[in-house]
Amino acid sequence: MTREYIWEVKVKNTPLLKRKCNRCTNDDFICSEKFRMNAQKKNIDVWLIYRCVKCDSTYNLSLFFRTKPELIQKDLFHKFSENNTEAAWQYAFSQEAKRKNNVEFDFGSVEYDLLHDNLSIEDILGFESETIQFRIKYPLDFNLKLSTVIRTALNISANKLNQLIEAEVFSVNGKFLEKKHKVRNGDIVCVYRDKLKI
Asked: Which PROSITE patterns match (predicted)?
């Protein structure tokens, strides 16, 4: 028998964008959560607008360039027109947008909360189920390490976590956990109770 719980990563802000400001000495830009659209004959350009945290000058992150409007999904086009916050956040975390614009996102600037049951290693040892699993909700990717999530949710030290990883107590998506593993939405972390030692 398997018990399943949810660990949910709730981000509190978008990452800063790192680039030299043309008007001041600052190199941090914050997402405005607003889009700019510009029609060029039968094509359209779409940008996500960033603002310098110091002088408020703008930088436009290119999302679509000289694209026919019909090639953009209707609901997405509507979200651009309405300055939809959820869509802005999706692009503010987008690795593809980062690569396409050759910019750097400062994922270290992202603050988040981890929603989880207050289970300890001792609690897990007391369960009758042989396997305990945690499904991770992580819709916005900011290079978070799975080891950080496990340490926080189970309230254990880095040394203790390393011991448990070496003892192959944890697996993620069917493979034993490696310390370098980055969280992906939908990851399933299994804890093998029979291998667990205090």
From this structure: S4
SS3 106: strand
- Strand 131-137 relative to strand 58-67: parallel, antiparallel, unpaired? unpaired
What one-letter code names the amino acid at 49? I
Given 42, 73, 102, which residue is the final one in a domain?
102
Please give the average per-residue pLDDT across 97-120, as a whole number. 95
pLDDT at position 127: 85
Kindly list the strands in the beta sheet with 104-106, ordered across the sheet, starting from the edge strand earlier in the chain.
Answer: 58-67, 43-52, 28-40, 16-18, 104-106
185 shares a domain with 120: yes
Number of folded domains that form the chain: 2
Report the candidate in 188, 192, 174, 176 with the shortest Cα–Cα distance to residue 130. 192
Mean pLDDT of the 97-115 span: 96
The SS3 of residue 153 is: helix
Instruction: Taking the CA atoms of 61, 67, 68 and 74 in sequence, report the sign of the dihedral they define.
Output: negative
Whole domain around residue 70: which residue ranges? 20-102
Tokens of residue 122, six digits: 């001792």
Closest by Cα among 192, 17, 10 to 111: 10
* Phi and psi, residue 39, nearest 5°: -90, 130
Cα separation, 68 vs 77, whole angstroms: 11
Measured distance CA(135)–CA(108) in Å, rounded: 24
Residue 81: CB atoms within 10 A of its CB come to 11
